[in-house]
Amino acid sequence: MIWLVFALLTFAAAMSVLAPLARSRKAGPLAVSQRATDVAFYEGEVAAIARDVERGLMSPADAEAAKAEAARRLIGAAVDPVEAGASRRNRTLAALVSLALIFATGLGLYLYIGSPALRDQPLTARRQAPPEQMDVMAAVAKIEAHLAANPNDGRGYDVVAPVYMQVGRYADAARALAQANKLLGATPEREAAQAEAHMMAGQGKMIPEARQAIARALALQPDFAQARFYVGLAAEEDGNLAQAREVWTKLLADAQPGAPWADVVRGRLSRLGAAPPGPSTAGALTGPPSGDAAAAISSMPEADRSAAIRGMVDGLAARLASDGRDAEGWLRLVRAYVVLNEGGKAKGALADARRALAGDVSAIERLAALAKQLGLEG
Amino acid sequence: MIVETGHYALVLAFALSLVQGIVPLWGALSNDRSLMAVGAPAALAQFAFVGLSYAALTYAYVVSDFSLINVIENSHSLKPLIYKISGVWGNHEGSMLLWVLTLALFGALVALRARHMPDDLAATVLAVQAWVSAAFLLFILLTSNPFARAVMAPMEGRDLNPILQDPGLAIHPPLLYLGYVGLSITFSFAAAALINGRIDAQWARWVRPWTLIAWMFLTVGIAMGSYWAYYTLGWGGFWFWDPVENASLMPWLAATALLHSALVMEKRDALKVWTIFLAILAFSLSLLGAFLVRSGVLTSVHSFASDPQRGVFILMILVFFIGGSLALFALRAQALKPGGLFAPVSREGALVLNNLLLTISCATVLVGTLYPLALEALTEEKISVGPPFFNLTTGLVFLPLFVIMPFGQMLAWKRGDLLGAAQRLTFAFGIALVAGVLFAVIHGEPALAVACAGLAIFAIVGAFVDVFGRITSAGLSPSVLWRRTIGLPLSAWGTTLAHAGLGVSLLGIAATGWGVERVMAMRAGDVSELGPFTVQLQGVHQRPGPNYSETVAMMTVSSGGVVLGTMNPSRKFYSARTMTTTDAGLMTINLGQVHIVVPEQSPDGSIDVRMYWKPYVALIWLGALVMFIGGGISLTDRRLRIGVARRAQPKATGASPQPAE
To answer: Cis peptide leading into B80, omega within 30 of 0?
Structure first.
């Protein structure tokens, strides 16, 4: 439908140029030649002088002088009348150039900058849309309205908090989590999520609110991994690297094999200059960790091992370069580069990922979160 | 779909402007009529497409389509409808679209008049105009696209800057743009004249209405902006020598000079090179204004959030058009044949003096505006060239114009009679003297205010002396007087009104010297003297608005125990932007205004109040309105202008016919 409208507009634009070119143009009444306007101008001057004399604004003697001057100008301006031509070759050429400009510039530029697939989103229509067609923002607004009417619905806060995180309203997410804790009873997961929200709201810094939330989470469950990881982050931010190293090393030691977050912790540790203990990261790179592969790699000599890991990372990068729609893959790749201490490549992969996943909002959010976590931004 | 259609239409308009920039020019250069004929329809189509695009953006604002980044950043669903519409141009991207719409509008108007113009002139003018359009369309599409979409549409926007939510904003920019962009047409005419190599009286005749239109709108646009600043910014001032204000004043000065020098060109075929130069200069200055506002080289109430990429782009536009036209000018200017000769004391001579003074004031403002910027760029030293500099320098250069103006109207073309003119102005001089004495007695100090007010009266009365003389010169019988009054060319009335209007504005400005200011804390019931009036604070209360909440102070103004009225100055708090604005209370009493602002409310219940009494202040803007009307009257006078070359006469006799306008 929209392409039909575009086609009509393009047609109208082309016609506005082609129609005048197509009209045959001999010396018709429309064409105004230079000589003709000269004479008309002169006649107008003489008429104006006559009018002024008639109205008594100019004496006849002055009028004669003025007329003489006007006539001198007419003669001075006299140019050899050049017959304006209209060459068929020029016309065809001009038509072709114009059409090329209209089509190439019009479509080319529009496809480059336009978003033909995006529909209008008038506010009233979005508000009235049935729930299953509602966009995230409208859904949030709806839940907010519900919560405003039922402020004691703890589950509502629980539902809306991750959505807030997704759309970047971190402070709101923290508030919602705190409400949910109050109404439903505190859980370490919510406290840790709240800490994360505060961190994001503070541009990745461990602001006091975040630290308090971590402390609360640990009070509820002292071995809660996420909270312990944050304790390490806080220590690192304070410059207390020894403590950070100690906390994370202990965390890894306690980790169950194949814990999905273990890579992140290892990455952090290696950035601190400590050799990450435990099994290597390679298994987590290309897919679900396969025990055999991991074992095989970890049993290799040091040089071979890093070569093997590199090979896997390169393979992943190549796969993503040809098909970039795998959000998990991108996240792994970025992490892997950080683990390999290749910050530049990590940043490059991050930028590539953003391009490849443009439009997938939740993936972009996760990328941003990862980037912050790994300290790739800011 | 409407939004993307608007987006596509804008891209098509750009494509069309390229066609319009190439084909008609090619036609004019190869003398091919078919190619020249493309100009007008292409210009009309381009206007239609930009108009469609503009309508689509307005639609997006009206229905609060927050999938457009521009709408998110500058609108709010609760904003009153008028500000949704005016909000379209209350931001960088939208205002650029309005700018381009105005460019296209002028192109379309020229296209409609093209049938009456020589083919090659019309074709070249439209082509040059299209280049200007193309440059700005590309600028919009690449760096400032109002149709950029957000990945995820929020449910609420960030609201328009509260200071811009005002009826003043609804009118001020469109008027100003008609002025700025109107100058693009005179620029296109100048460039076309240089390209075609024909620069003569006829050219001046074709350009005249466009210069007038641009000048008229620039005049009211500036005045409107000044009035808006006066009542919203809450400083009680009407002109701040803000670089952006200067950026609008400079093209006005150049356009005024152009208007006058084009007159000499049309009537006497003289000052041709100069006129072309002024036409280029006037538009260059309006481009410079655009650059200053949008590049981020300066920050002011007017500057939109800007990024360096835009600055560089506009700088390129600036360099291309100014450099290109000046190069063309350098190539062609020597080829111009000198036109009519004239003596120093003559209408032409007076107009040259006018041009000299106007361009010097323009240069002064330019230096004062750019010098601090250049200094900061070179040495990182920040200096501020403030009102004292501008008041002194432009005042010194501009004030003599008020003396010359009436003389200029009285002098004959080619050779004038200064003494005769002076004699006939004795009357105006006398009135000005009496008025000055009266002002001194009534208002007293400062002397500068009295002197300027007297000068203003001289200019106003002097403006009418000429038409009065012409009407009465053939005898005083009623029938003759009547015949002469209606027989007088409309342009004579236009000149008179425009000159008188400038005098009226000066009177208003001079009277600011007699203003009274009071700053104090007041509680309900408190009374204060303000010049000839007594102001009492009745109370303070809260009032909710659509997208703000308001603290309103109720104040009564009385004189000699008689209550003249109540005023409601207020402070508005806009929650979306957490910004507060002040709405001044204004009461107009005999052309003067009581102006009250409440900048602060203390916790103890008292409010800070700033009060001004400004006698005759309304004249500043009324004067601009009179100038606008004068321009309009002159515009309706479609006669050709003929300059009568008069022989030197032994003495001016009252009965001799006056030169036709």
So the answer is: no
Residues 6+ apart with CB under 8 A from B487: A55, A56, A57
d(CA B179, CA B219): 8
What is the pLDDT tens value at each position of chain A, 378 positions in all? 888 999 999 999 999 998 888 876 554 434 456 667 777 777 777 777 777 777 666 677 777 877 777 777 777 665 555 555 667 788 888 899 999 999 998 889 998 888 888 888 888 887 777 766 666 777 777 788 788 888 888 888 888 888 887 767 788 888 889 888 888 888 888 898 999 888 888 777 788 889 999 999 999 888 888 888 889 888 888 888 888 888 888 888 888 777 777 777 888 888 777 655 554 443 334 343 344 445 555 555 555 666 666 777 777 787 777 777 778 788 888 877 877 777 778 888 888 888 778 777 778 888 888 887 777 764
Q: Which of residues 20-39 of B touch A (CB under 8 A)?
A: 22-23, 26-27, 30-38
Closest CB to B26 among A77, A82, A94: A94
- Of chain B, the end-to-end C-alpha distance in Å amounts to 55
Contact, B421 vs B407, CB < 8 A?
yes
3-state secondary structure of B544: strand
Please choose, from the candidates B539, B560, B622, B540, the residue with its C-alpha nearest in 3D space to the C-alpha of residue B588: B622
CA atoms of A230 and A211, how far apart (whole Å): 8
Q: Can you tell me the distance from the alpha carbon of A68 to that of A211, in angstroms, rounded to the nearest whole number?
A: 95
CA atoms within 13 A on the CB side of B215: 26
Q: How far apart are the first and last CA of chain A?
A: 44
How wide is the angle at C-alpha A150 spanned by C-alphas A148 and A153, nearest 5°? 115
- Beta-bridged to residue B562, according to DSSP, are B559
Alpha-carbon dihedral angle through residues B442, B447, B451, B454, given to the nearest 10 degrees: 0
At B555, give phi and psi (nearest 5°).
-130, 140
How many Cβ atoms from other residues are within 10 Å of residue B631's Cβ?
25
The answer to whether B7 faces chain A, any CB pair under 8 Å, is yes
Q: Searching chain B, which residue's CA lies closest to the CA of residue A359? A: B151
Say what angle helices B167-196 and B2-30 make with each other, to 10 degrees: 20
d(CA B604, CA B486): 66
**Mutation target vs B (from A1, A11, A32, A53; most B CBs, 10 A cutoff):** A32
Q: What is the DSSP letter of A214?
A: H
Run of H or E residues at A196: helix A188-201
Of B287, B289, B284, the C-alpha closest to B242 is B289
A114, B147: Cβ pair inside 8 Å?
Answer: yes
Cα B213 to chain centroid distance, Å, stands at 11
Structural contact between residues B236 and B610, judged by C-beta atoms closer than 8 angstroms:
yes
Identify the closest residue of chain A to B56 by CA–CA distance.
A120
Write out the DSSP string of A260-325. TTHHHHHHHHHHTTPPPPSS-STHHHHSSPPHHHHHHHHTS-HHHHHHHHHHHHHHHHHHHHH---
Report helix, strand or coil for B540: strand
What is A279-378's CATH number?
1.25.40
Is residue A32 within 8 A of residue B119, CB to CB? The reply is yes
Rg of chain A on CA atoms, in Å:
37
Domain residue extents for chain A? 279-378
Q: Do B65 and A120 touch (CB under 8 A)?
A: yes
CB B147 within 8 A of CB B6: yes
Contacting residues of B for A113, CB less than 8 Å apart: 7, 11, 141-142, 145
Q: CB under 8 Å to B439, separation ≥6 — which residues?
A: B449, B450, B453, B454
Phi, psi for residue B75 in degrees, rounded to 5: -135, 175
CA distance A221 to chain B (A): 37
Nearest CA-CA distance, residue A282 and chain B, Å:
35
- Closest-CA residue to B506 (of B410, B627, B388, B361): B627
